[in-house]
Amino acid sequence: MKQCFLTFEGSAPVNDKEVANQVKEKLKAATSGVAQVQMEIASKYGVGDQMGVLAGVNKVMEDGKVDLAHEEGQVWLVDLWATWCPPCQGPMKHNHEMLLKRKDWEGKVRILGLSIDDAPATVKAHVESKGWTAPEHYHCKTGGCTVNDEYGSGGVPHVFIVDTKGKIVFM
């Protein structure tokens, strides 16, 4: 018996999520019975897309979940990071320092740190020990939060910027 090994990988704009799901289902059906099929087909946000709601995000500094929706007129810097990630530490420190220095940004610029650590308590302890309390800190790994799947690059650090109209302008 011959074996065939296939790998499918691709992404589509977030507004084509249904199309991506249909392609995935058709590929599953077409490859049934084939040994070792790997498939990664996702629908993600990208530059130029209107930002959606960051749903089911865990609060870090207090208990509970929140849905984060962009408000027109604000610029957002969203920083996907982790406490265990050495390359993430410098940018998070810089985010904190920028907010302390730029008091004129209040109400206009939000810096959101979204951690992919295993637990919100880990993030809280790390942020408090470093004194990085100026950015807003959230946790997006558990509890149905899909931020890393929809906006992430598959690794950290990963940053995206949203303009005053809610459009992703950098990723």
Keywords:
single chain, 4 helices, 9 strands, 30% strand, 171 residues, 27% helix, alpha/beta
Mean pLDDT: 87
- Shape descriptor: globular
How much helix, percentage-wise, in residues?
25-40%
Total helix count? 4
β-strand percent reads 25-35%
Cα separation of the termini: 46 Å
Q: Using only CA atoms, what is the Rg?
A: 19 Å
Give the low-pLDDT segments. none
Order of helices and strands: EHEEEEHEHEHEE
Topology, number of strands = 9
Largest sheet: 7 strands, mixed
How would you describe what is shown here?
- The chain is an alpha/beta fold and 171 residues long.
- Helices cover 27% and strands 30% of the residues.
- The chain is built from four helices and nine strands, in the order βαββββαβαβαββ.
- It has helices at residues 17-30, 86-101, 120-130, 147-151; strands spanning 6-13, 37-44, 54-59, 65-68, 75-81, 109-115, 136-139, 158-162, 168-170.
- A seven-stranded mixed beta sheet has the order 4-3-7-6-5-8-9. A two-stranded parallel sheet has the order 1-2.
- β3 (54-59) and β4 form a beta hairpin.
- The relative contact order is 0.20.
Question: Topology of this structure?
Answer:
Elements: E1 6-13, H1 17-30, E2 37-44, E3 54-59, E4 65-68, E5 75-81, H2 86-101, E6 109-115, H3 120-130, E7 136-139, H4 147-151, E8 158-162, E9 168-170
Parallel strand pairs: 1-2, 5-6, 6-7
Antiparallel strand pairs: 3-4, 3-7, 5-8, 8-9
